[in-house]
Amino acid sequence: MCGIVGIIDWQMPMDTQKEILLGMVSTLGHRGPDGRGLFVSPGAALGHTRLSIIDLKSGAQPFQIDRFVMVYNGEVYNYVEIRKELEKLNIPFYTKSDTEVVLRAFAYWGTDCFNKFNGQFALLIWDRYKRELIAARDRFGVRPLYIAKQKSSIYFSSELKAFDTIAGFNRTYEMQNFLEHGMLWNTIGDKTIYQDIRTLAAGSVEVYNMSGLVKRYQYYTLGQTYSRYPYSYEQAKEELQDKLLNSVKLRLRSDVPVGVYLSGGIDSAIIAHLNGKASSQTFDTFSIAFSDKQFDESIFQNEMATQIGSKHHTENINYDSINRNFLNTIYHIERPVFRSAPTPLYLLAKKVREANIKVVLTGEAADEIFFGYDSFKEIKILQFWAKQPSSKFRPHLIKRLYPHLQHYADSKQFGFIKMYYEKFLGSVGHKLAGLNIRMHNNKVIRASLNKDFGASISIEKIAEDMEASLPNDFGGWTNLQQHQYLEMKTLLSGYLLSSQGDRISLSQSVEGRYPFLDHELVEFAFSLPDSFKMRGLSQKHILRDSFNGLIPKSIINRPKLPYQAPDLKSFFKNGKLYGSGAEFLSSHMIAKYGVFDQNYVKRFLNKFKDRTPEQIGYRDNMLLVFMLSSQMACFWSENPKFNHQETVEGMDVEINDYTNELRPVSV
């Protein structure tokens, strides 16, 4: 796993390119501490930081084959099979790296190669003859690629902080996008919350020449090959086991040891079990234990670690450790979040690196593809209730939502909760039903913003923009399939895989791999009947059933507990903000950045003077973390952290292409 940067500018001198590249690369050392490289030529320049995982001795980047030069972040796990296919075509290889396979595949098949890749990647390829830059990203957006525009220059980077090194470029919130992010937990399409910065969409390719962006297309969309699974439930179970095992085996391809995260839930337990099945060697597992027992799952983590005989490591987390490390967490995430949950993962990644492990497997994305979130239950309950909206009995199914939230089981709260859900009965069949509930939960953010910014985007406008981006056959899917698509396009791709995945693990030079995001597995799961994935209100039914007897029953049978960490409790003591919370939510800092309404923030914080954090609900937890992380993201935009300045002498690879003549197009 690595960091990549690039420049397109037909007027910029090569010496200037080199100077800018060195500055950008200097911010990405955590993504790739094992090597540096750069390529400069008239019109385009590329930079790279390397985290060596496969072929440790060769495969340094930028990597050049004849007319093509590439910088590449990620892994293509089926590179062994693709290499064999190319060797049969008499194509030579000089390294053992997947990097060479990726570039030779592109040289032979062109952009069709991306359909062959099974992996997670973002890359930039410069065609020296055509004078074109090709940018591409993996199907689910696991690895990031941002694009910034400044005058005649276009810049590319794995992380936003690299743009902070460019003279005259300042990261500033685009407030409409900022509000959209607050209500949806992500921005729609290729937008970001910053002015003049966008992201390359997952599963897409863009081509640039001296005219700028000249071609853009989507090579993958979830469900594009959808057809209903034609076989029995028992056959589906067997196929699921085979596909998951194959996915784990592919993601064990590495020249360094691979560890596994154990959360205490079924998803990571299955990955750990399959890792043990695929490898005969003892491996390391890593977990988070919370001093606050409301969030602690260490009993289940230790039970699973004992069963598989792993070398188990635990990172102990308390309120103070979250408070102390939240600012540095936001430095790496680079935008607002809604939970303090990334910080324990940031500390866990440190422990992984201290154990000399560079790669970890995680259980991310099982909830999206097997209907594991409680939002899927919300949709199903509302659909059932909507058939008889006057029923006195059907609303009581609400009590089976969110088993980890005590007030859902409190009979005194039932009337209020029922009234809340009743307003969604009329729209339950709508394409955006699940997102509609999330946006209504989060609309409190709109009231918190400084009115001077004029950010006033409505739920209706967000829904309209989201609906315009849906695939043509979206209307033919079930409501639960539609919700899966929306969760994967918003919450998973733009939020979880960033704030709890790529950005957090690579802050410590650790590569996360996600077996549940194997595209063949995802498409298989999408094809299954809804009843296979959710039987009644039993979520991830086929996943649990397929591994029953292989995973401890205590884990198989436990209700879904979403990964969370203490939010308000981590920033309040005795009714007062302390530490980083007190600093960044002070009246002075609220006024300094001007994002939030000062009176609103003051009223909001006053709510907690006479109340303990234990009494605080979902929205207040979410709003406090959102405001705090937004303030911290402003701080890092204004105070970029540069660890050191790279030099040409420190490069492992330096390619200077001074020619400006066009060559024949043939390879």
Automatic annotation (TrEMBL):
Sequence positions that bind ATP: I288
Glutamine amidotransferase type-2 domain residues: 2-211
Marked site positions, Important for beta-aspartyl-AMP intermediate formation: E364
Classification via Gene3D superfamilies: Glutamine Phosphoribosylpyrophosphate, subunit 1, domain 1, HUPs
Pathway(s) this gene product operates in, as recorded in its UniProt entry: Amino-acid biosynthesis; L-asparagine biosynthesis; L-asparagine from L-aspartate (L-Gln route): step 1/1
Entry keyword annotation includes Nucleotide-binding: yes
Pfam families linked to this entry: Asn_synthase, GATase_7
GO cellular-component term (any): cytosol
Positions of the catalytic residues: C2 (for gatase activity)
GO terms of biological process kind: asparagine biosynthetic process
Coiled-coil portions: none
A Gene Ontology molecular function term of the record: asparagine synthase (glutamine-hydrolyzing) activity
UniProt entry tagged with the keyword Cell cycle: no
Catalytic activity: L-aspartate + L-glutamine + ATP + H2O = L-asparagine + L-glutamate + AMP + diphosphate + H(+)
EC number: 6.3.5.4
Keywords: Amino-acid biosynthesis, Asparagine biosynthesis, ATP-binding, Glutamine amidotransferase, Nucleotide-binding
Binding site for L-glutamine: D98
PANTHER family: ASPARAGINE SYNTHETASE, ASPARAGINE SYNTHETASE (GLUTAMINE-HYDROLYZING)
Family per record: Belongs to the asparagine synthetase family.
Entry protein name: asparagine synthase (glutamine-hydrolyzing)
The organism of origin for this protein: Candidatus Thiomargarita nelsonii
